[in-house]
């Protein structure tokens, strides 16, 4: 949980704002109830429910884009409703929302939410005591929104650049081990939620040291790039390939298990045997394959795939070993 909070910026913002909203709005909901203002009480409850749905959706699915958008809408239009129902307090609520929308959703979408919320507040609410106060509010809201937009835009492009540098392997262009941990964590959560199989394949080029020694590191690098290109061309859009380290890669196959898995692996092995070459012939690969078991942790899943890879190496290399027993057992080199 801490890992996800530390590594997913938007999830951490959604969680922080969710917790703040619960502590900030609940006392007012209680106050409205005591005052007998049942409409405002119901609105506060709806805001809390919307916030809870956003936080829950973000944690359950990892889809922080939709969750952030929902939370931005709930907070901003909720503040407008509060303005309509109880006046002044809506204005105070809307101010922090004008900034936080930019942390929750795409800058363009945040801009649209802010403009529409401010216009709605000006058109339908009795929150303003005078026209002068209303226009002061509008100008201040425009300045806040413009500053937040510029900040969010720059922040977003810098964060993207940093994320790219931190998560992508510069040689092959696939995700590195750091991002793999996050994606495997997500795969475990998805399997628990949907019950669909998730399979992990560890691939390791055989005798890569010899290839490097014989032909040099530049050709070694080319083989790593070729391997990634070939796997990319063979796999589906939602399969994910990671560089685990050196000449070892991890392929994550969602919704693949049982007999399907055997077909996918056999075809992948056939393709790489045919197409991955060094100057004096084929480059061979050993595979360790593990399908996530019910209730299994990411660490155990990865360890089982690693053990299967170790068996493939020990068994003579150039073969597939299934940690969970064969759909069709370990494939000999001639298979
Ligand atoms: N060209 C190149 N070589 C790399 C890179 N990363 C690691 N290597 C090399 O990969 C080789 C891995 O060697 P080993 O771990 O002994 O494995 P191996 O020779 O493939 O032997 P087996 O895995 O047991 O079949 C080392 O020589 C590393 O220098 C890289 O980015 N480019």
TrEMBL record:
GO terms for biological process: cell adhesion involved in single-species biofilm formation; negative regulation of bacterial-type flagellum-dependent cell motility. One of its GO terms (cellular component) is plasma membrane. PROSITE patterns: GGDEF (PS50887). It is an enzyme of class 2 (transferase). InterPro entries: Diguanylate_Cyclase, GGDEF_dom, Nucleotide_cyclase, Rev_trsase/Diguanyl_cyclase. The chain crosses the membrane at residues 12-31, 37-55, 67-87, 93-123, 135-153. The keyword Electron transport does not apply. Keywords: Membrane, Transmembrane, Transmembrane helix. Its cofactor is Mg(2+). It catalyses: 2 GTP = 3',3'-c-di-GMP + 2 diphosphate. It holds the Pfam family GGDEF. SMART domains: GGDEF. NCBIfam families: GGDEF. This is diguanylate cyclase. It comes from Marinobacter persicus.
